[in-house]
Design goal:
This protein is α/β, with parallel strands linked by helices and 582 residues long. It has helices spanning 5-21, 25-39, 43-52, 77-94, 112-125, 139-148, 191-196, 221-231, 256-265, 299-308, 340-356, 380-388, 399-402, 430-446, 451-462, 479-489, 556-577; strands at 64-67, 101-106, 129-132, 153-157, 166-173, 185-186, 216-217, 246-249, 271-273, 312-316, 323-328, 335-337, 370-374, 391-395, 408-413, 417-419, 464-473, 494-495, 498-505, 519-523, 528-533, 539-548.
Length: 582
């Protein structure tokens, strides 16, 4: 992008003004250094400066998430101050004679505590009754606190599993602002737009008041209350066996201490932490991306499990709202991480069994339990629900939608997110999910079986549901809408040799689903592909699923081979349709 002399001077002037009013001396100094390089003709510095000031961060249903740094398109104290002021204005406008309240949490990423304190200072000055969690804690503890403290809002400062240079800002609504099943869940439209409309970058930053004090520091007992509540999920009568060797990694995040406490209090005494990833470290030195889904992220944990003869690996992402499980596959002798859809089905079947036996302590208010999953997740959960006599609902991607399903007992999405106790946490929760995974694995081990045996049982009963994903990471975000446009204009006529019989543009919406940017294709033989931009990362994601009938236990391997071939062919076809090399 080439700027005129006038445009450059306007950019430089805007950057100088930002640096002069920045409440953070560190980001102000960083911006001045970048500005000096740009003024001296350094092309890369000018490009970076242009990007930082080419608009503002979009506040949406994912809140905020971006790289740290100065400027309106980065995460910094100035942006957080304006965002907090917008949320405070929204809460004040929603109040009907009462004082709004909000609880604020933060993880161990760079500047997370500073952003939390900034938010508390803005809320307090604006007349919001603000509660600050006592230390770095997992996102599920913040989500729990919104309901436990009955606050009208919650803010969690985290970028979840994003790279080390990022941070973010999740917003929850509860108390008197949202009623029904959405109470305590992350924001959805129209709340996001109403808050965004109140975030005003035209006003001087100095016009936003901050208070040096006035918020309440929440007692450390909030974490203990959460741990006790999660341990209340354990079925101590039906599944007393705790003979399970677990290797646990919090992936340099804040979930290690909480997860260890939950497992220990539930009776799991053989839990080994991956030492190199045990303590919170905002630089995530042992992983390129601190996401259990990423290749190599679980290598240290799996290596330790193989060396020590462990039964399973449990992993949380850095803010512990996701959970992953790895185990040694008896068929191959190799350790592998279960796909999110596999774990989602296992937990669904496990919870269904607990409900049928009367051991599931946290039932929904409705007479018929409801299971839910996102549209990009496997169709297997719907079959598990139907066989148990439960209701099932599909939602858009994201727990802000899943958690709002009336009568919800269990919900999941394939990206390692599971809600096993919606009465406690109206969001995905890697801690409580990890506990129930351990409970299931222990009960299977006591019966001389493994999670893979249970997956085989589900395939025999419901058909082999096999899934895969094609993720296209881009440096230039404009490539994502270009690929979506290409697919809309030139949709595939067949996938994996089967004719496309249903093609749905999800942006149109339907009676069942609000509009979203996505495309769904279903073929004659049941192959399904959904294509959508990621809401949290610079990726275009393609979700593939095939269903193969299984002719008895001896037919499992044939079904797996056939499913793998169909998935590979479908992946090649959708890659070609996107204009990518296969």
């Amino acid at each position: 992008m080439t700027l005129t002399a006038m445009e450059r001077e306007e950019l430089f002037s805007e950057a100088r003004n930002w640096a002069d009013t920045d409440p953070d001396p560190a980001t102000a100094a960083e911006l001045r250094a970048l500005l000096a390089e740009a003024e001296n003709g350094t092309g890369a510095a000018l490009e970076e400066l242009t990007d930082r000031f080419s608009g503002t961060l979009e506040f949406g249903t994912a809140g905020l998430r971006a790289a740290l740094g100065a400027g309106p398109r980065r995460m910094n104290r100035a942006v957080v101050r304006r965002t907090a002021a917008g949320i405070a204005s929204f809460l004040q406008d929603r109040s009907e004679g009462w004082i709004p309240s909000a609880v604020i949490g933060y993880d161990a990423r760079h500047n997370s505590k500073a952003f939390a304190l900034e938010t508390a200072a803005v809320f307090s000055a604006a007349g919001i009754e603000a509660f600050l969690l006592p230390c770095t804690l997992p996102t599920p503890v913040l989500a729990y606190a919104v309901r436990a403290l009955d606050t009208d809002a919650g803010v969690m400062v985290t970028a979840s599993h994003n790279p080390a240079q990022d941070n973010g800002y999740k917003v929850y609504l509860g108390g008197r602002t949202v009623k029904g099943p959405g109470r305590g869940a992350q924001i959805v439209p129209p709340y996001d737009a109403e808050i965004a409309a109140r975030i005003d970058y035209t006003l001087p930053l100095s016009s936003i008041e901050t208070a040096p004090e006035g918020w309440t520091d929440v007692s450390e007992s909030i974490a203990a209350d959460y741990i006790n509540a999660v341990d209340g999920l354990v079925n101590r009568d039906g599944y007393p066996a705790r003979d399970l060797k677990i290797v646990l990694t919090p992936m340099h995040g804040v979930g290690g201490e909480t997860m260890m406490s939950v497992l220990r209090d539930a009776g799991f005494s053989s839990v080994t932490l991956v030492a190199a990833q045990a303590e919170p470290d905002p630089d995530f030195p042992t992983v390129a991306f601190p996401n259990p889904e990423e290749p190599g992220a679980l290598d240290l944990a799996v290596g330790m499990a193989a060396e020590t003869g462990a039964d399973i690996v449990l992993a949380n992402d850095p803010d512990a709202d996701r959970a992953a499980v790895a185990a040694q596959d008896p068929a191959t002798g190799q350790w592998r991480m279960l796909r999110g859809d596999e774990t989602g089905a296992l937990l669904g079947a496990h919870i269904a069994g607990r409900i049928r036996s009367g051991h599931h302590r946290l039932r929904a208010d409705s007479k018929t339990p409801v299971f839910a999953n996102s549209i990009v997740s496997s169709r297997l959960l719907a079959r598990i629900a139907a066989s148990a006599g439960f209701a099932h609902q599909e939602t858009l991607t994201g727990f802000k939608w899943i958690s709002r399903v009336p009568g919800l007992v269990y919900g999941y999405e394939e990206a390692l997110g599971y809600c096993v106790a919606p009465a406690l946490v109206r969001d995905k929760d890697g801690i409580s999910a990890g506990l129930l995974i351990a409970e299931l694995a222990a009960s299977l081990k006591a019966a001389g079986r493994t999670v893979f045996d249970m997956l085989d049982d589900l395939a025999l009963e419901h058909g082999l549901h096999a899934s895969d994903q094609l993720s296209v990471r881009v440096a230039d975000l404009s490539l994502i809408p270009q690929m979506m446009t290409r697919l809309r204009e030139q949709p595939p006529s067949s996938l994996a040799g089967s004719q496309v019989v249903t093609a749905v543009d999800l942006s149109a919406g339907s009676e069942a689903l609000p509009p979203t940017d996505g495309l769904l294709y279903l073929t004659e033989d049941g192959t399904r592909i959904i294509v959508r931009p990621s809401g949290t990362e610079p990726k275009l994601k393609c979700y593939l699923e095939v269903i193969e009938p299984v002719d008895g236990r001896e037919g499992l391997e044939r079904a797996r081979a056939a499913a793998a071939a169909r998935l590979a062919a479908a992946k090649d076809d959708i890659a070609a349709a996107l204009g990518l090399e296969a």
